[in-house]
Amino acid sequence: MLQNRFLLFLLMFSFIVVSCDSNSVYDNYKSVPNAWHKDSIVSFKINPPDSTKAYNLFVNLRNTNAYKYNNLFLIVEMVFPHGKTIKDTLEYKMAEPSGKLLGEGYMDIKENKLWYKEKVVFSEAGEYIVNIQHAMRENGKVNGVVELEGVTDVGFRIENPITK
Which of 34, 67, 77, 126 has the most CB atoms in a 10 Å sphere around its CB? Predict the structure, then answer.
């Protein structure tokens, strides 16, 4: 009994140590119900901690095997505290040519850390808003995919740059 408790404690302690991430400044996810509607915008409100440092920005995505595309198109908009807006249309590779999904994870859910911007300085004081929306289209079709299946969570991450 004592040995089992010790093993449980050791397992929990090692999980906590491994899960700590010293580069992370902000890391948040929002769930997508059933399917991600083309008009649904996932928003994150951010108050950066330091206006003098440069950060790397990422869009995080969790998806299941129900995701049936090789790529992903996103519209990512950053709204600055004083009203300036930067909007980017981004494309990410989500699967190998064989159809095997990319990303981390051993089970049904894959997690993808997708580059958004590098060495960003949040020079304006106040709250920034990041809006993320999918912009998927099927080949040969004009209208976009209305309900994007297979995406379970959309996240946004800010990291300290890795220094060598």
Answer: 67
- Tokens representing 46 are 């951010």
Q: By CB neighbour count within 10 A (0-12 exposed, 13-18 middle, 19+ buried), where does 75 fall?
A: middle
- pLDDT tens digits, 79-133: 999 999 999 999 999 988 888 888 888 778 889 999 999 999 999 999 999 999 9
Cα 64 to Cα 106: distance, rounded to the nearest angstrom: 11
The structure tokens listed for 94 are 């989500």
Angstrom distance (rounded) from CA 137 to CA 148? 10
| 111 three-class SS | strand
- Is pTM, for the whole model, over 0.70? yes
For the four alpha carbons of 109, 114, 120 and 123, in that order, the dihedral sign comes to: negative
Cα–chain center distance at 66: 18
Domains identified in the chain and CATH numbers:
22-159 (2.60.120)
